[in-house]
Amino acid sequence: MSDNFTLLGPSASEAAGRSDILYLALVGFSTLIAGIFLGVIIWFCFRYRRNSPADRSNAPSHGGGLEAAWTIAPLLVFLGLFAWAAKYYAEMYRPPADATPVFVVGRQWMWKIEHGNGRREINELHVPIDTPVKLVMASQDVIHSFFVPAFRQKQDVVPGRYSILWFKANKEGVYHLLCAEYCGTDHASMIGRVMVMQPQDYARWLEEGTSQPGMAQRGFTLFREHGCAGCHSTGSTVHAPLLAGLLGRSVHLEDGSILVADETYVHDSIVEPQKQMVAGYAPIMPSFKGQLSEEDIMAIIEYIRASGDPHTEKQQP
Ligand code: CUA
């Protein structure tokens, strides 16, 4: 048994520890309350069995205090558990702003992973320890589910939209990566490994794979090749939003709502530009659905991220 083995299996992320305590508390309270009720039922069965000498006259009324107590006490316990779980869920739902993005594309039947500097891997994910990592995931075909039991993290990966999952690994080691959604003949072999490494080892590992251009560089090439710069640039005569510094910025939409631009927003704006129109712009952008692969779109997002602050717009990251 390794030192990271807990009652619920290997645990290698901050969330795993929190999730386990919550899970055990839920099971513990449920067992306790069910046990009390079971005990009382069994006791009544014996006490009031047929022909027993127990007093069967109508009990005097206690004004309902006892009934109120046994109703309200479990209610408070479970509302408390709900609040605890909701807080955990809300924190897991929102990745920290400084999380390192890693891109994942699921397909029948493998996980394709790309790191910001262009290092790619298949069915393996290398991550640094004690660092928030945000996975931006898309599917190329059917629904898959990215599951790392040691992180207590599972997230469906759905075609046509992004799924975000973030974690902070806290134990070095090698952990299972599974597909947890039946996705066809070889679903069972859609498995891999997650390697949690020291930050300096991770940095060295990243550098070993820098023969290809980085994602931002590839994104810049695509940005030019597909004519994006024709409208989205300072010199353009077409009135289109400038994209430098877009990620993390508030965007005012035509319907009056405001959203914070994230990877999902950029992705949707490329494949379905008319869906969320930016206030003050004409709906002239064509959809690039089918022209760009999920990996291409991810590269363009990295180009936009690398192009940084809108006031110091660079042509090349
Ligand atoms: Cu992919 Cu199951």
Helical residues, percent: 25-40%
As an assembly, this protein is: single chain
The CATH topology of the largest domain: Immunoglobulin-like
* Count of discrete alpha- or pi-helical segments spanning 4 or more residues: 6
Largest β-sheet summary: 5 strands, mixed
The figure for the number of domains is 2
Strand content: 15-25%
CATH superfamily of the largest domain: Cupredoxins -  blue copper proteins
Radius of gyration: 27 Å
Taking the alpha carbons of the first and last residues, their distance comes to 48 Å
Question: Judging by the overall fold, what is the CATH architecture of the largest domain?
Answer: Sandwich
- Which parts are unreliable, with pLDDT below 50 for 5 consecutive residues or more? 310-317
Number of strands: 14
Spatial shape: elongated
Reading side by side through the largest sheet, how are the strands ordered? 5-4-3-7-10
Q: Which CATH C-level class of the largest domain is it?
A: Mainly Beta
Report the order of strands and helices: EEHHEEEEEEEEEEHHEEHH
Bound molecules: dinuclear copper ion
Domain Cytochrome c: 214-308
Catalytic activity: 4 Fe(II)-[cytochrome c] + O2 + 8 H(+)(in) = 4 Fe(III)-[cytochrome c] + 2 H2O + 4 H(+)(out)
GO molecular function: copper ion binding; cytochrome-c oxidase activity; heme binding; iron ion binding; oxidoreductase activity
Transmembrane segments: 21-46, 67-86
